[in-house]
Amino acid sequence: MRDVAVIGIGMTKWGELWEKSLRDIFVETALVALDDAGVDHIDAMYVGCMSGGLFVGQEHLSSLLADYLGVAPIPAVRVESACASGGLAFRQGFIDVASGMSEIVLVAGVEKMTDVGVDEATYVLSTAADQEYESYHGITFPGLYAMIARAHIHAYGTTREQLAHVAVKNHQHGAMNPLAQYRQKITVEDVLNSTLVADPLRVLDCSPITDGAAAVILCPVNLAKKISKHPIARVIGSGHATDTIAFHSRSDLTSLEGTMRAAGAAYKMAGIGPGQIHLAEVHDCFTIAEICVIEALGFVERGHGGKAAKSGMTALGGKIPVNTSGGLKSKGHPVGATGVAQVYEIVKQLRGDAGERQVTNARVGLTQNMGGTGGSTVVHILEVQP
Amino acid sequence: MRDVAVIGIGMTKWGELWEKSLRDIFVETALVALDDAGVDHIDAMYVGCMSGGLFVGQEHLSSLLADYLGVAPIPAVRVESACASGGLAFRQGFIDVASGMSEIVLVAGVEKMTDVGVDEATYVLSTAADQEYESYHGITFPGLYAMIARAHIHAYGTTREQLAHVAVKNHQHGAMNPLAQYRQKITVEDVLNSTLVADPLRVLDCSPITDGAAAVILCPVNLAKKISKHPIARVIGSGHATDTIAFHSRSDLTSLEGTMRAAGAAYKMAGIGPGQIHLAEVHDCFTIAEICVIEALGFVERGHGGKAAKSGMTALGGKIPVNTSGGLKSKGHPVGATGVAQVYEIVKQLRGDAGERQVTNARVGLTQNMGGTGGSTVVHILEVQP
Hints:
The structure is a homodimer.
Chain A: E1 4-11, H1 22-37, E2 44-48, H2 52-56, H3 61-69, E3 76-80, H4 85-99, E4 105-111, H5 118-126, H6 141-156, H7 160-174, H8 188-193, E5 196-198, E6 201-202, E7 212-220, H9 221-227, E8 233-242, H10 257-270, E9 279-281, H11 287-296, H12 305-311, H13 327-331, H14 335-351, E10 364-371, E11 376-384
Parallel strand pairs in A: 2-3, 2-4, 9-10
Antiparallel strand pairs in A: 1-7, 1-8, 4-7, 5-6, 8-11, 10-11
Helix pairs in contact in A: 1-3, 4-14, 7-11, 7-12, 11-12
């Protein structure tokens, strides 16, 4: 397999983009990535999108978007793995370039979620859970993650305040990201006094519903060295794992087995461990998710995720900054786009281009993107080349 | 890139499978393929499915199906490209093995279409067209293909009877396939007297709505030589192309540019041309589709597709048998499964295991699977190894 680099990144403002359609958002964002890479053609395209069918009545997205970007007839592939669709599209693009099949590949993630009402959006998102054993009976994702939070509080004494600190931190970071959906800073009290959604989770524990896209350009490292005008971010680790979707089959709700396995594979490929990661973008769809994820990635011991959030260890300036982009919580969570936007942030940081949210000496970054409550997880590790 | 072989194939009876759910159909079929390959583990899985979200309220299918097959936590990827989802899943599995990322890969296609009513199914299928410029305004796929048929009749003098001959031939073939949905033989008169759907297409010009799955197992040729108990079918060509989805952007409705490009790429990789193909499985979602496809593949000259069907050239015993499985028309068309079922048929033929529908001296076979009216097309060429 060939070494693969990210040579272009693109993102546009996320939010409730009433005046733009899915194809508009995608094209606008892909053009930013192409411009950033300085390339005038691509050989293949991968698009992560969770549910074009249910959100906007459009399947067959890869061809439609290739056409609107003006790159048809190149091969274009849509990949779906619920909220991990973007991360998985990135992995498939990586495999494509690594295999020798394609030289320059565009990977994008996109979701247009606000064309349906909130109830409908909640239903669409629930199709990431087990339809026959979970969603059909009325469970929604805030409910599923509330059960994880209750289990974590019960097992490890995690506190309501510790959960709130995750949201506070990510809004602090997001306030420095001009592309984030919600840029206001919030306090622990704001979180604790916000509307209860699914006990113990309140609305400020939850990532929002968002329209948005992100895109990156991949090519072999050897080609990147010739054509890239930026510091080269090499993909040194890639891991992907599945897990049971339904809760009734899991032995421990607080343990993200998929994340552990995907991270294990990525660490092994990279030849490094969690101690050598300088920053990470992880899947904080709910505050409790970030707590479980940083434990599963090995950044902290099991049960210590809540304390880490409160201690500042995962904030900008801490031992391992997590979600400097603002994370899903503040930046927004257009589900299919999230995994690609994580790569965008890591590459921006590795290039030293992250402005006021720049992590000092960021040379190795990790992304962790998961579908549902961890039924699928994709982890990547990127390193800036000397 | 490594050479890749198909070492296992599985298919189960297609039809209106009221008593089985999507996951049941998938698992049953995947087990047949695993048993046929004689392997007890796989390293990764690719699933083609057009719209689990709209047909059965289930996204996140790759993880769900990996879990129900008992193969989680392996990487599992769902690929969508409308009715070409199966063919594209096969290509992605091929790239995965060719890259060196995985050794043994399961590729499956599955669709459960009869859990919704016919009107709803027609809507779901229409999400493969351009939502903003076509489907929203009421066009359905019979209408789109009727326009192609009218254009072909106008340009080349193709007759209503020639269209009927495609259906008659494919039902003749399907009558010999115990897994086909509709095994009855039909006559030209049956087709001409059947209910008008979208002039000039009648109901017997149209493929049915079907529940079903198909699965194959891929591995490197070197490994296949050691472990396979069957003649080895090597993937010698793979091509994938996109095209504009909306008709208003095409210069000629009768010309399947995507098929020409995907076939061109597959022929180039294989180092052969259409004259060296012994049999083909092509995307006859409507009778006119098979006519346009065999022209685009170069089996006949432009405009001669209708005559070919009538002459017997594409029937079993003819110069190049097309759709010996019964094709989408008789075998059925569970949209995400179709592309994988095409590979199933070709491998069965290359092994000499096709029973009464066996093509004599079949050594090189081609599959052509397309999404919508050709917005995406995937072509593969397989050759049995001496």
